[in-house]
User: Fold these one by one.
Assistant:
Number 1:
Amino acid sequence: MRFFSDNAAAVHPRVLAAMADANALDTAYDGDALSKALDGRLSDLFETEVRALWVSTGTAANCLALAAMCPPYGGILCHRDAHIQNDEGGAPEFYTHGAKLLLCDGEGAKLTPDTIRATADAIADDVHRVQPHCLSITNATEYGLVYRPDEVAAIGELARSRGWRFHMDGARFANAVATAGCSPADVTWRAGVEALSFGFVKNGGMSAECLVFFDRALADATLRRRKRAGLLLSKGRYLAAQILAMVEGDLWLDNARAANARAATLASAAGDRLVHPVEANEVFLRATPQEAAALRARGFDFYDWAAGEVRMVTAWDTPEHDVARLADAIDTL
Amino acid sequence: MRFFSDNAAAVHPRVLAAMADANALDTAYDGDALSKALDGRLSDLFETEVRALWVSTGTAANCLALAAMCPPYGGILCHRDAHIQNDEGGAPEFYTHGAKLLLCDGEGAKLTPDTIRATADAIADDVHRVQPHCLSITNATEYGLVYRPDEVAAIGELARSRGWRFHMDGARFANAVATAGCSPADVTWRAGVEALSFGFVKNGGMSAECLVFFDRALADATLRRRKRAGLLLSKGRYLAAQILAMVEGDLWLDNARAANARAATLASAAGDRLVHPVEANEVFLRATPQEAAALRARGFDFYDWAAGEVRMVTAWDTPEHDVARLADAIDTL
Amino acid sequence: MRFFSDNAAAVHPRVLAAMADANALDTAYDGDALSKALDGRLSDLFETEVRALWVSTGTAANCLALAAMCPPYGGILCHRDAHIQNDEGGAPEFYTHGAKLLLCDGEGAKLTPDTIRATADAIADDVHRVQPHCLSITNATEYGLVYRPDEVAAIGELARSRGWRFHMDGARFANAVATAGCSPADVTWRAGVEALSFGFVKNGGMSAECLVFFDRALADATLRRRKRAGLLLSKGRYLAAQILAMVEGDLWLDNARAANARAATLASAAGDRLVHPVEANEVFLRATPQEAAALRARGFDFYDWAAGEVRMVTAWDTPEHDVARLADAIDTL
Amino acid sequence: MRFFSDNAAAVHPRVLAAMADANALDTAYDGDALSKALDGRLSDLFETEVRALWVSTGTAANCLALAAMCPPYGGILCHRDAHIQNDEGGAPEFYTHGAKLLLCDGEGAKLTPDTIRATADAIADDVHRVQPHCLSITNATEYGLVYRPDEVAAIGELARSRGWRFHMDGARFANAVATAGCSPADVTWRAGVEALSFGFVKNGGMSAECLVFFDRALADATLRRRKRAGLLLSKGRYLAAQILAMVEGDLWLDNARAANARAATLASAAGDRLVHPVEANEVFLRATPQEAAALRARGFDFYDWAAGEVRMVTAWDTPEHDVARLADAIDTL
């Protein structure tokens, strides 16, 4: 029973069906009807004119956004536990040609204006120090916390006042929106976000994330960077099809709600063991090595996070009976 | 009737089926059973131990190979009409951190030891000039010519004697092997090739090319570069599935033969109009603007290449009756 | 007797004296009085407000300018024999993070609007091709030809109409201005040039070139790039002192005139042997290997350029009697 | 009275004289007799065969070394207060094409095997995390502490056991050796160091640092990188002359001893105010803003370091009477 991550979950049948349907089309790169529909469809979803590009991975989406927002000699403010800092194999440095990540603190990998200022204000404004040029937050965070619109807006206001660009890594954006119960617009561009890595792969897609530019001027150079990075698939229609299927009928929200509900079940069972509040689909709980071993012995697969902590992740397709069994197992530890 | 390119052809049903089958698996990145099977399956095909990595695009495959073979301060010998020089939006420079393409001549975009030496020997061996570090050829070439094993071996011998690495861009490798009638080994590692971008997308795949390292030592750093470029899909199993399906039962060769046969039909019709011999699935022929317009008026879609030349490309799925009609139309120009 | 190059000529005594005087100062980087005087002094010379930065080498000056003018995914139009293409060891690609040099033709390494258009117009405006973003000319050219103000202005107008940035490599700018007899302003910003690598090292300096931005907005990021490239010397005052000494009393022009006059003497002797008109301080002449050997046997040192051609370069300090002897020797070949 | 830094101290008269003497030479780049003498002269000093390259700045020396030691996708272990992390404007990332600095702790900016292991061992060995490839220490450290040979050797042994390359930033190497009283060999290659940025500029030079490779195999590619970075001065002889003059008669050690002695005088006066032991030529002491202002009012110039701390630096040429006055002023605060 797999609670290791949501990153290898099955592809939703409606996504698979949409890909099969795309086989009939025959225009290359992003010249097909599906790719061309992305701008409009995402503009509807976000209630404003956006540019929307398919990209094969979340890492690529994040790093294309950062490259559009930060010059090679600049710095990117982010949490010290951010995915871009720890889990992308140096991709931000590759795409930006060596920009420097400037690390900030914050409970549960969540930044606040205060923690951002603490890092930024310690950097002397001279030519010897790399200066901040942009800011990236992750919603939901690496620890499954959710930024609400007002929290994002406070950070957005700081960014605006300092002249920093503002990016949101939304690998689990769907889970965050499902929890916040807000409109996608409220927690992004209305709060100052200029580019969003809108994740679908963890949530029922196969190989398509959507890079959404609220500042549409950033898109043109990004189209060139996407090609230059070897990310412009000749049969892009199969990526566009995935995104459109996920957006259609709010499948993205339905799937996220399903994953979140499963995590909530585990959270209830975990009670005092919880390391962080469970706001999305990740559950971090305290467990001794013996307890972790006992759970594994019963067939549950999950991640050892830090000493005495484990991480369990649910997905849209996590079987409910697996969840029930794991909740029960946690309860009876 | 589309003869524009093979780059947007339909995905073969057996490939689609294999992808659907992969939905049951659930291990991320390249840890799944299908991804793990690539080394073995490609080793069988090439009759030697290889390392085989899935990559989403041919550009990425080429550029990962080049980055493994050339330091940032080095040079890459290639034909001046090579895809890496003209059609990858600067990706080779991105992946290699600014290596320089050193351009060689050759009829039909085909290099020979003589044309390579002409370029290389004109470069003074001092610190002011970028020195050649590797060599890349394309088989079949941009003009649809096919390198035979002895031709590759002659170039490989030159590369070996100069200490240059040797890469083959095989976006249409299947078409080349189908024509040459040789074993894949003969035209690659037995002829000195150390890395091959083995193309499947133009030939019935959806989004998976295979980067094959005959010099297996090059693979480890490439795994890191693939991640760093945002190319490590979390659901890599769907890429591996495509490659395995294409290799299974020699589907790759069957598809290439089908495409080549269609091109041969057009070549016969074109006769004296041919700009290059037709050895793979590309047909370059002389046509006045009026003639090109006449063909388009009859529903044929193709590419204006140079002044007075057009390019027609066939694919595994080009309908035979479309081919027959186009052959007829050319014949009666 | 050295006619190999002007790149190792002695440092002018007034430059050495100015450096010794700078020893009394003690502010680091470019915070000293001499460094701060550059903007003003060069603004006077060019009759407009400029930003002027000291840089240790011409390669660095060129490449900092190009990095300010061309994004990593862009292209730089230049002559195929340009120094940035052939003699800087890949520095343009390093500084620009992999921009591509787009090569143009032109007699004597001199570009014209026509030769530039021939290259630029052959580049399809799509995402697969690297697009021109800037243009770089060398004055005097690699073959010692001089662009006059109207020639530069014609190119500048083309650049402006296409939205390209415009850089001038002036490693031998002094020699060019001395010949053209124009004001420095006329052949630079009044003709559309936005950045000039103003060379002093070949002309009596030791280790200081001046990067002059007529578009002053380009300077701020360049200050950061200069630091990031390890080019911000802590004792920059010794570089500023060199430039100020060269500008003072038009030493730069006097030195260039001296060098040019010596080349003119050689040119007269060479007569029909000349490969290019001698407009600056470089003399290219036809000489058989036997003739070249004969000259060397008489103690003259020079460069074998192409088959049957040699290059002789004069400098501000080339002894006149050496020039006379060489002229005589050429005359009597 | 300047105690701001040693980075703008005067050039020693013997260095200036050596530069003037170099004016007679005339071979370009590093082909002159002085540049060619570096390998031998530094080999003598270090009692082993080395390759020694002049470089204009310490930043460039450090970053060329790091580029030789770390691939673009790799990581560089260093102290979180290291110059390469904080004061080089992103140059390490530029030269290495985006390698990541992996930050370690340590009192007084001094690393130990334990603090290095703490950082390194927390990095999971998978493709998502940037892996350590090299290690850089600074001797003397940013806080003026000195590594003794056995301390370096312990770190060198760790590096060797892990397969990491080992670099020493010796911007104040002279001050460290003067204090340690060891041979230069003992604290470098005999302790495992493979490359040393040997600083001369803070210690009486003008614009020449020496990059010393104990692993000589690293030098060849570095010659190309030096050119590619625009750091290959055409009149390199003036840089070589500086280094040779500094090494001649142990001027480097004499100057460092002079600077260290001045710092010791200040340290004695500072007593309990000292933040770190004074082992080289930097004095960090506690002073309230009022106290700092009082000192400045008396004509002393120095750096506000952290809250309640100031930094005072002595150089080879700091006038002894200024030192005496400052010592007195500190004493009577």
Number 2:
Amino acid sequence: MRVGVLTGGGDCPGLNAVIRAIVRKGVQEYGYDFTGFRDGWRGPLEGRTVPLDIPAVRGILPRGGTILGSSRTNPLNAEDGVRRVRENLAEQGVDALIVIGGEDTLGVAATLYEEHGVPCVGVPKTIDNDLSGTDYTFGFDTAVNIATEAIDRLHTTAESHMRVLVCEVMGRHAGWIALHSGLAGGANVILIPEHRFDLDEVCGWITSRFEAAYAPIVVVAEGAMPSDGEMVLKDESHDSFGHVRLSGVGEWLAKQIEKRTGKEARTTVLGHVQRGGTPSAFDRWLATRFGLHAIDCVHDGDYGKMVALQGTRIVRIPISEATAELKTVDPELYAEAGVFFG
Amino acid sequence: MRVGVLTGGGDCPGLNAVIRAIVRKGVQEYGYDFTGFRDGWRGPLEGRTVPLDIPAVRGILPRGGTILGSSRTNPLNAEDGVRRVRENLAEQGVDALIVIGGEDTLGVAATLYEEHGVPCVGVPKTIDNDLSGTDYTFGFDTAVNIATEAIDRLHTTAESHMRVLVCEVMGRHAGWIALHSGLAGGANVILIPEHRFDLDEVCGWITSRFEAAYAPIVVVAEGAMPSDGEMVLKDESHDSFGHVRLSGVGEWLAKQIEKRTGKEARTTVLGHVQRGGTPSAFDRWLATRFGLHAIDCVHDGDYGKMVALQGTRIVRIPISEATAELKTVDPELYAEAGVFFG
Amino acid sequence: MRVGVLTGGGDCPGLNAVIRAIVRKGVQEYGYDFTGFRDGWRGPLEGRTVPLDIPAVRGILPRGGTILGSSRTNPLNAEDGVRRVRENLAEQGVDALIVIGGEDTLGVAATLYEEHGVPCVGVPKTIDNDLSGTDYTFGFDTAVNIATEAIDRLHTTAESHMRVLVCEVMGRHAGWIALHSGLAGGANVILIPEHRFDLDEVCGWITSRFEAAYAPIVVVAEGAMPSDGEMVLKDESHDSFGHVRLSGVGEWLAKQIEKRTGKEARTTVLGHVQRGGTPSAFDRWLATRFGLHAIDCVHDGDYGKMVALQGTRIVRIPISEATAELKTVDPELYAEAGVFFG
Amino acid sequence: MRVGVLTGGGDCPGLNAVIRAIVRKGVQEYGYDFTGFRDGWRGPLEGRTVPLDIPAVRGILPRGGTILGSSRTNPLNAEDGVRRVRENLAEQGVDALIVIGGEDTLGVAATLYEEHGVPCVGVPKTIDNDLSGTDYTFGFDTAVNIATEAIDRLHTTAESHMRVLVCEVMGRHAGWIALHSGLAGGANVILIPEHRFDLDEVCGWITSRFEAAYAPIVVVAEGAMPSDGEMVLKDESHDSFGHVRLSGVGEWLAKQIEKRTGKEARTTVLGHVQRGGTPSAFDRWLATRFGLHAIDCVHDGDYGKMVALQGTRIVRIPISEATAELKTVDPELYAEAGVFFG
């Protein structure tokens, strides 16, 4: 039995931990061989491989990034893509494919499995935590810890100068990182894509915070938007990974706040720092368990499934279920945080 | 409406976050007044109180420990204890009591509620994560992160000198910290109280690790025990909080390993460092949500209940249910980790 | 004897440690009383004070920011400023003034001492490490650690996607933070204000790094500039603290690199995160020693002096000496780092 | 030109950074070849080598430990040791040897150079910071940061339970780690080997701290001793690296304090955690600069010298000078810290 592994989409702390767990259990318990495909779906599409065995996964558990590289290549959009993928899998003698990725990467796996019978197993990966069917995805906890530590630091500088500090965090379509790090960091305002914000209300919270003789911290997801649509951002282009470039909501917001409240405001855009480096303990644990259960799926011949966390258990759900709908922040959960605003 | 709050048992990162959330929501949304009871159940027993209002909870979110102090006093064991508690609650005008603590502290709340009608709401707290009815307790994630960071550090020193490094972590009756930090830290052996270990097997794993030209890391919970009961520990006394003093399983194990394998072995006992300091983002988030839901219980007059985490939702369960049985590591979960041993 | 204390300019981790050491030694060893002046020189100018005694400095050692607040007010530019400062000092019964600040704040102290006989003692503070006469200033080590940790994180994301990552750090006029964090973080290009960079050379290093199959990290001080002056930044206004707003050299550079090398490039601007939060152990130690020696200066009646670090000793130098000239990066030191470029 | 490199003695964060800098500059600027000797002096003694080139040093900057391994083998004590070392150097074609180590390792280098003409260059390494001739050694700052973070954590648990917490840190003969981390962590008592402590005085400080309603933290170097010599430690054997095993002064002290003050006391022994893991930014910077200057010594044919930090400059001093005398804590410096005791 030979198993192929690929990682697609934006990088995420914990990818290497998944790969290591798959290989360790696959080799030691099931006696499988492995083929690493380079750079996401470009690997099977173009036949780009790397050796993947026990020595290759030594020491990678605590390291961010992915030893397999990543890309956003979609073989379904490539000429003759499905045929080329199947041929390359066959040429490598690959009997099953474990696909670690987000909505797009897994979407390809769902299609290849359902329409073309390619034996795929999925592992969910999104730093934004917005995949359905799983309580959490790895990388998210690391990002939230990094953002929270930054917010902790911003508090002291805000207080010393009695300024507004706006911290822009990741989250184009879902506000999970903003909500969790904002709550954990004691932010006075948290703005998320799921709930259009009212600038007057935001400025009201800021003013009331200053009246209590404290300086406010605003945590804003990069995808948050004002209710009246007046925001003019400096740049909305997308990169080749589908990440929007720094969209500038943080800077725009700081300027609006300065104009309306008369207080000094500064912005920090955390950016890529949130998705690199060593994973948190939780993410290493979750990624490792995902890897162990993914290779079990292969062993059981249970294809078309994705491993997922529900409570403290790892379960299997159809890949297509996970990618059907974005998991956004529930309005009730967001409302719960409102007691800390202002 | 006046609400009393107390924290009992060993300290745990996140206690202050719970207190803050209770007071913020209680004052701002429900208009309640608060009384802080000092040092766990000793507070209501002896009438020891501190003021508890919005200014008192400013800035405490990121701080470890508890501003209310703690103790292991059990009013049920004190002469006339129940009467004294009730009198002191009445004297303070306290209409409801939020009790933040572990098995023992919550056990008192269950009895006072069930047998004496004292209106209590519970918030689960145990760094060891061994309370039933909740997926996680706050403080656990912080402890696991600290232990994992220590294990990361031990790897490099083990490799440089080709020595065995034994890391003893907390966990008298349950191996959660050992299991999670051992998996996250890439330990080569993980020993937990739920599974008596065989010294020959342990030495076998260690020898095979050296044969692969790597140095082994052993993570051992303080309550782990050998299968043949030969362990002679240096000290088994208990402190006034029921914590056993450093029991010495780590040091004992290192000596046994040296004797049997001929390799140098060293022990690090993490001790109190695991339970102090600023909480992780996850623990701040969980503790904050527990606090918000506990005060909601009071508002709903839903007494005798404890808040708990199930998946990503906060639910309410009878306090007595949580304290009925210790939540230990499932044998299957422990077996899952075995692929990394040796 | 009553001693006044003020902190001026941008905040810096370690300010509270200085204040604590001054008060602890002043009260316990010399029996002094203290007056805290609020918000830098605005305090003495407008008679804004806060109580400053042992309880006021409890627990502040590990906290960033300054309990005294800060501002950039210059009494020498205020109408009748010198007279008002002297009157307020006299009214408070202040016999000596300890001034903690950077070039501007200390410059005022030098003038007040030399031209008006105000008994001042200086403590150097600049996160940029660009004050003459002292090997290091506190806050710098913390900033370098934060920047280095960020660079560590960026490496993994750069490698996973084979992208250029540009990290913009503080340093308007001096490249100390860029040089130290760049060396410590293993950057492939380090650009500092003291040395105008050649864009072709930078792109050459980047290309050669990719040729070795690695992704490059560029660390750029916010004040770095290209040799041919073609850079058009988005914003060059100054805030009320004299900090330039995000000048945009990082983003500009990323775009130039993309255009010239055809590789994807991303920018992270660390911003205020570098100057907030808990100080590193080195900064707490240095700040504490500065505080102890500053109060000794007062005790010795040794005014007009600033404490400074030379090797491992704390010495006293004339304040005017420290502010005479900016301490920039020596060309030889910068050249030493060049072996790691590319 | 072929240069040999070895690392001896206990491991220390920054060793890999030195090795990397030596190789990068040696290969790129001087065109040298390198031979890595394994496990300290055992390498040249037994002819144990590893390849050492640019690929071998990729990615090692942030990693603790040493890729060359270490040992405490002394060739001067081995039969025919000097001859064997010279023969192995000749056989490998090694023209110069860079020796990275502490007192013992460098002492061998001094003898081999002075008495046998072996062309050696030294790089000082001691986590304890007790080598003469250099302001700091790398690894020390990392150890102090780790100890300080631990002390920060112990504060909150001490306060919550009003207990004494004793933190035992490294430092057999010199109290640098205890002094720096104790000052940085706000310890209430700091005990170092250079100054025998009086148990009554220590208990006096502890009692006065409790009287101020705070819980005391005691930082004690492992080599600290009471003035009346009554201490009975549990174990004083040395390991093969000359490190004493956990000597037990911390635990002994906690018991004495409990007995004399009636307060609960707990001990944390940080142990090996202090010397492993990723180096701090300062240590990476210092280690890198040491490496660059060491290879310059080789290039200049300046043998018998050790690189050293004086202020912010790297200088060269005779190796024998550095190992002549232990650098201990100056009584005046220790007295300076006394203002914070109690």
